[in-house]
Amino acid sequence: xxxxRFKKNWKFIIPLAVILSIAVKIYYILTLxxxxxxxxxxxxxxxxxxxxLLAGRGYFMxxxxxxxLYSFRPPLxxxxxxxxxxxFGKNTLVIRIIYVFINLLIAYLTYLIGKKxxxxxxxxxxxxxxxxxxxxxxxSGWLGPETISILLLTLTVYLIYxxxxxxxxxxxxxxSFVIALLIYxxxxxxxxxPFLILSYFILLREKKITKTLQxxxxxxxxxxPWLIRNFIIHKKIVFxxxxxxxxxxxxxxxxxxxxxxxxxxxxxxxxxxKLKEIERDAYLFKKGIEFIKTNFFEYLTLVxxxxxxxxxxxxxxxxxxxxxxxxxxxxxxxxxxxxxxFLVGLFFSLKDKRKFLPFYxxxxxxxxxxxxIRAKVSYRMTYSxxxxxxxxxxxxxxxxLKIKKHV
Length: 407
Fold this sequence. Notes:
Low-confidence stretches: 35-42, 318-322
Shape: globular
Radius of gyration: 22 Å
Number of domains: 1
Distance between the termini: 16 Å
Order of helices and strands: HHHHHHHHHHHHHHHHHHH
Helix content: over 70%
Mean pLDDT: 87
Strand content: under 5%
Number of helices: 19
Number of strands: 0
């Protein structure tokens, strides 16, 4: 009966849900401030680069460093901020409103993936969940690159399925371009890109090597302007120079000393700021490896805790003005059922492993690499659309099992 009513009224229900989702997110971000003081550290880095671009000084900033850093952050987010600041000034409300509508695109792409690889019912379940998914509502107010990263990863997954079915030149170039944009958005996507290309290779049904090589070459082509620019500056091939700092911040004695936190910037970090950019990056990587070698069992404890951190059903406290204790509790109560249904969907997915291959490789990469190197709950939000699709698959399977029992 409910199915028949929904089918009859879906053209009314879906637009109503979209409007309500926008209203909820707009209401939430209007409760937040709009001043520069609300810029969190991740945005401060991008903001500093955007300020330098606006002033005509070029693409650089300083971060735990006494000298300019030219390749510390990938360029997509700082350039995004540059255009926003150019048009609207340094107004955080504008960024948050843009994020609200990016979230709508994420929801639509999630629906398209569900419809393409599953069925319309699973697609609609995922659509309704993601429209009111609490972490994405919170991320509408979170001034960082996560929302853009979620959009690009969801779009990449959709294009992997689309292009593996129809590997036309247009689709190949589009897939390659979006993978490059994904890498430009956050540096850890550079490590994910081989897994994305591998899933595309396996899903292809013909001319696998040729079509995959084309994607690889196009991705390199789209990354080449940044690589060439960095080579001119540093006299060596380098994509980004934040890796050493991120790695050492999560793997040093102070992380253990202060309750196994996710990261800590110790005195070595500040001392390394006197080094040149490339030297600092290599030095901090070296110090992180030394820490692991001399504190291996403590490091294993960090790995275990990071694994748990990745999958816990609430955010770490990053910005009190965005994440209050009340919001943490609400997220705990709403995210826990999603993660449980995700596990159910993951179990049922084992009967159709090929269809879920991109999902598996993304889950594997973020879980294993996150546990070994550095982990935050916010990293899991990057692939939240895939978690919701898997949970929706689990809901559909449970529903079908109940129907079979009553037949």
